[in-house]
Amino acid sequence: MTLRLALLGDSMAAGRGAARRTDAPGALLSDRLHDDGWSVTTQVLAVSGARSAGLAGQVDQARGWRPHVAVIIIGANDLIHRTRAGDAARDLGDAVRRLREVGCEVVVAPAPDLSALPDTPAGLKPMLRAASMLLRDRQIIAARAAGAHVADCDHGTAAAFSADRSLFSADRFHPSSAGYAVIADALYPAVSAAVSQSRARSSDKNASRSRRKVGAGSAR
After folding, report:
1. Catalytic residue among 10, 11, 149, 198
2. Lowest CB count within 10 Å: 31, 33, 51, 161, which one?
3. C-alpha distances in angstroms, 66 versus 30, 124, 129, 136?
4. CA-wise closest residue to 52 among 143, 182, 120
5. CATH number of 2-219
6. Domains of the chain, residue spans
7. pLDDT single digits (tens) 37-86
8. Catalytic-role residue among 149, 152, 169, 174
9. Active-site residue 10, yes or no?
10. Catalytic residue among 119, 154, 171, 218
11. Active site includes 132?
12. Which one, of 150, 149, 163, lies nearest residue 113 by Cα?
């Protein structure tokens, strides 16, 4: 079986800032899945600048492709444009539910902590951190309620980015290739769990079909 992996969300999901396309999240996750024995095909449906409200169109495309696993990285632009946390979380939950309706396992990476950005004035850091944490908390609740796996729950990536400026690209906003490696590390446990659940569901469906065929043969 070839695993279909979709990346939805904003420029971070698309890998903006990485030095090479092979350093983007989709490629890094595909490589790790391949190392675990999976044949993987990946589609990146993420759009730079996307907010949570824009996930609906990406989900429409994903549902047509029917991925086994979808990874959603979203929230930075909601913070920048001061989207209400409840509205952004609702839109994320809707996206997760629509993907789950077509049998897709979903992994959500909540919003980054914008107070970790290198050029953030010290006086703004508390406000940005509070806004980031509020959105993250709302996203986690909505994503789990809709049936998603949530990555980076302990927000370990924020500590890493705060401590190491080399994890940012030249624009000092998007991750560098090294930064995306940190993000992939945080994502992978949840992605691996999602893949396992997708495989188990597929096995159950195959077993059910086999039983129906046996039953139909016996009825003859």
Report:
1. 11
2. 31
3. 17, 42, 36, 27
4. 143
5. 3.40.50.1110
6. 2-219
7. 999 999 999 999 999 999 999 999 999 999 999 999 999 999 999 999 99
8. 174
9. no
10. 171
11. no
12. 163
